[in-house]
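Incident log, support desk, overnight shift.

02:14 A customer reports that sequence design results differ from what the structure should imply. Their input is reproduced verbatim below. On-call engineer (initials T.W.) acknowledged and began investigating.
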């Protein structure tokens, strides 16, 4: 593996853990984590690949934002989740974005099913449980990078 990959993993794990902890405990994701991932992705890709890297990081951010935008518009995700997808989209770049989105959706579906099962078992009165999605996004970016 190259230096870029090691730096991507370091950023993904560090920012992913921070965003996940905040989402689990506060049910919010600060813009700081998303912006940090965005800037790190742009800087890393531009540093290693020049203009093509910059374009890849920016395209990854836009596509990462767009991937789950429909779920946000339908009320199924929060704005912090979409911004975190954009930040990590820049970190993986456009070439790895579909792999990232796949892993995120897979892990997110598992987490959602688990939360719904636990709520059903406990018979909670919460009609629409809040599902923290940052852990799924963090796992998705790490799985995408490891599988590259």
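02:41 Re-run completed on a clean worker. Output:
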């Amino acid at each position: 593996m190259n230096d870029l990959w090691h730096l991507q993993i370091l950023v993904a794990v560090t920012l992913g853990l921070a965003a996940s902890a905040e989402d689990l405990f506060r049910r919010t994701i600060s813009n700081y984590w998303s912006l940090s991932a965005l800037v790190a992705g742009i800087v890393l890709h531009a540093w290693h690949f020049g203009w093509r890297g910059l374009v890849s990081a920016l395209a990854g951010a836009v596509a990462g934002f767009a991937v789950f935008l429909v779920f946000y518009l339908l009320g199924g995700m929060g704005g912090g989740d979409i911004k975190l997808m954009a930040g990590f989209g820049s970190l993986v770049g456009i070439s790895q974005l579909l792999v990232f989105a796949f892993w995120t959706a897979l892990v997110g579906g598992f987490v959602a099913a688990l939360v719904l099962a636990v709520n059903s078992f406990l018979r909670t009165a919460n009609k629409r449980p809040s599902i923290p999605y940052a852990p799924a996004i963090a796992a998705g970016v790490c799985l995408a990078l490891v599988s590259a």
